[in-house]
Structures are given as structure tokens and as C-alpha cells.
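Backbone-to-sequence.
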């Protein structure tokens, strides 16, 4: 728990930043946000532009928790992670997977689908399976882009191309449609946006809706309002959990790692290995997996790296972030 600091206190330490990406991801070539400094450490406020003020308020709550509050006592010191594969050309997808396997020791890859043509998705999955071999695990993520009819038609093809998948993450936008898909297709489904975009996370009906729609629960500290809130949601919903990030910097990643470290049972690799997507960071060395895992712990920004990232923010965007933080803060004040 923590006391809500004043808006003036937050703005005094708020530092907008911009980090270039190695590859376009989620339609972005730059990942930007705001760092906040508090008595405990640093928090990262970086809701994507399409989040409304209420959703951004959850993200701000997570950043304040990181800077002013305390995270639960960890039950593990390292977190096994998956690699994430954007919509790349087949040759590049193969190279990306080889690096994840050989350099980072990762044996689980999440492949973004439904962003390009089905034929490209199929070819990409074949390439990933060739690199990983039969022992590797593949997940696919549709980000809610399909209709129910489209998903029923394309998913069996994608699963065959991948040589089997661990699960399909959020193939459809609506939980009701996911429930119907789950009943008609023999592939495990994971709920991500269906939870974090819920209007009211305290809705007593929400856990049953999610359990009916999915077999796995994806938790993200920022979009859900912080580590404590996410852990409580995991307890209420009761599904196997995968903790994922949201294209965080190595400073902001600490909240996701704290969440993964605080979940009692964590049988699946987590989606926190997104540092490979960053071309620059707020620390001198980006946090990347070693032997397929990341060590938990808070990271402070490197002064030079933070200065460079702050210098990349245009004045109009700096003001935009100040206004956005202020509007998000307004949703937290009683």
C-alpha cells in the first residue's frame, strides 16, 4: 500500500523519454513514456496513446506503486521468459528465433499473427518451429483482430504450421466470442485484453467470464494498476498465469518482474523478454535473458542514457505527457 502523492510532487520528478525500437511493434517505431522518481525508486508511466484517461490512470497507479510503495516479498529470484516475434519476413523471423535460442537461451517464442496475410503468418510459424525443434514451445497472439468465423477457419491452419501451440492469446476481442471459440476448437486460449480492458476490474462477474473464455490468464502490471492489484486478480480468477510486459524500458520492467516473482505458482514462461525490441534504453545495458531467464530487481536509469532519451522528446510531446499524466492522476483522486 502507499499514500497517493500530490500531482505537483509527481510532476517535479516527471521525465518524458523516447526510445527507438529495432523493429516496428504495435505500429510503433519509438516507445515513449515518463519516468517518475519517489522515495522507494523509479516508476514508469507509459500507457499507449489509445488508452483513455481511466486506463492510463491504472498505469499511473502502477508507476506510483513502484516509486512510493512496496512490492510483495518475492517467492523466486529469476523468471523464465519467452521471446516475442513481431511480424517479420520469414528469413528475419528465423534469424530472430535463432538469436533468442542461442544467445538468450529462450525455448518459448510468442509469434504475433493477424497483422499480415495468413500466408505470411503460416510461413513464419513454420520457420520458428524449424529453429526451435520439437522441444520448443510456440504461442501465437492475435490481439483480438479476428472475428469468430475467421478464427475458426485460420487457427487450425496456424496450429498445424507451428507443429502445435502452447496457447493462442486473445484471438478475439470479446470474451463471449472467446468462450464460443473455446467450445468449438481444441486449442488452449489465453485472456489478455479481455481482462486489462475491462471497465471495472472489481466486477464480481468478471472472474467467471474470464474462466469461461480462457485457459490461461495474462497479467500486465502497468495496465492493471500495479503489482498488488494484479496479484489479487490472479487469486480471484484462479487460472494459470503468464506475466507479460508492455514494451517497458529496463527501468519499467522491474514492476513486471516483481509481479512474476510474487505469484505463488508460475508454471509458464513469462512475456517479459521484450528488451530485444529496444534499440536504446534508459540503462547502459538493456536487461536481456540469460539461460532463458531474467533476474528480478529494481533498476535505476543511467544518467547519460536518460538524458539522451529525454532529449529525443519533442517539446510538444513533452507537454502532451504532462497533460496526460495530469488527466490520469485526476482519475485516481477520490
Amino acid at each position: 500500500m502507499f499514500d497517493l502523492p500530490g500531482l505537483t510532487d509527481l510532476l517535479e520528478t516527471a521525465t518524458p523519454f523516447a526510445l527507438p525500437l529495432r523493429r516496428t511493434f504495435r505500429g510503433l517505431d519509438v516507445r515513449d513514456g515518463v519516468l517518475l522518481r519517489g522515495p522507494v525508486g523509479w516508476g514508469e508511466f507509459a500507457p499507449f496513446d489509445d488508452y483513455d484517461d481511466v486506463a492510463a490512470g491504472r498505469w499511473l497507479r502502477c508507476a506510483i506503486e513502484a516509486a512510493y510503495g512496496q512490492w510483495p516479498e518475492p517467492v523466486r529470484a529469476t523468471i523464465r521468459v519467452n521471446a516475442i516475434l513481431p511480424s517479420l519476413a520469414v528469413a528475419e523471423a528465423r534469424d530472430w528465433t535463432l538469436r533468442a535460442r542461442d544467445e538468450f537461451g529462450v525455448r518459448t517464442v510468442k509469434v504475433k499473427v493477424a497483422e499480415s496475410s495468413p500466408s505470411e503468418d503460416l510461413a513464419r510459424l513454420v520457420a520458428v518451429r524449424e529453429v526451435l525443434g520439437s522441444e520448443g514451445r510456440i504461442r501465437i497472439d492475435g490481439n483480438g483482430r479476428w472475428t469468430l468465423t475467421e478464427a475458426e477457419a485460420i487457427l487450425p491452419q496456424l496450429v498445424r504450421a507451428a507443429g502445435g501451440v502452447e496457447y493462442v492469446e486473445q484471438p478475439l476481442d470479446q470474451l463471449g466470442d472467446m468462450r464460443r471459440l473455446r467450445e468449438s476448437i481444441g486449442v488452449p486460449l489465453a485472456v489478455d485484453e479481455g481482462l486489462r480492458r475491462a471497465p471495472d476490474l472489481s466486477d464480481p462477474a468478471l472472474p467467471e467470464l474470464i474462466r469461461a473464455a480462457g485457459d490461461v490468464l495474462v497479467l500486465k502490471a502497468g495496465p492493471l494498476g500495479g503489482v498488488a492489484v494484479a496479484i489479487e486478480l490472479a487469486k480471484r480468477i484462479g487460472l494459470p498465469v503468464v506475466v507479460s510486459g508492455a514494451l517497458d524500458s529496463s527501468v519499467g520492467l522491474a514492476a513486471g518482474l516483481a509481479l512474476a516473482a510474487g505469484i505463488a505458482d508460475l508454471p509458464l514462461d513469462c512475456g517479459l523478454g521484450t528488451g530485444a525490441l529496444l534499440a536504446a534504453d534508459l540503462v547502459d545495458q538493456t536487461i536481456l535473458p540469460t539461460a532463458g531467464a531474467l533476474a528480478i530487481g529494481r533498476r535505476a536509469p543511467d544518467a547519460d542514457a536518460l538524458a539522451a532519451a529525454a532529449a529525443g522528446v519533442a517539446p510538444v510531446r513533452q507537454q502532451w505527457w504532462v497533460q496526460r499524466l495530469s488527466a490520469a492522476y485526476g482519475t485516481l483522486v477520490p
